[in-house]
Amino acid sequence: QVQLVESGGGSVQAGGSLRLSCAASGYTVSRYCMGWFRQAPGKGREEVARIGSGGSTVYADSVKGRFTISQDNAKNTLYLQMNSLKPDDTAMYYCAADSKRAYCSVLPMSTDYWGQGTQVTVSS
Prior knowledge:
By secondary structure, the protein is an all-beta fold. It has strands at 3-7, 10-13, 18-25, 34-39, 46-51, 57-59, 67-72, 77-82, 91-97, 113-114, 118-123.
């Protein structure tokens, strides 16, 4: 059974940093595409970043240069380092995992598994 457990959310002031973690069990983070998504109140869920098994990454324009997605294969954990946070980054952040596709630098990943989410709140 696949479980994805996020942690690391919190409240920060604009300009601050947070690092989100997504610990996986029943799933190997290095094998398929994984990603981070977010959903702000009253808005739809949007992709923030994704990473393929070869390490290739894709970012939403709104976070390029500020966020970095990475994975630690030894810890079987996905990360999202978020710097220069803005109030617009306030949202519930979810990690997601693909069960089939290893490469997703061109085509979007499939979101077959989801974590429960972690809240990020950025104040001005």
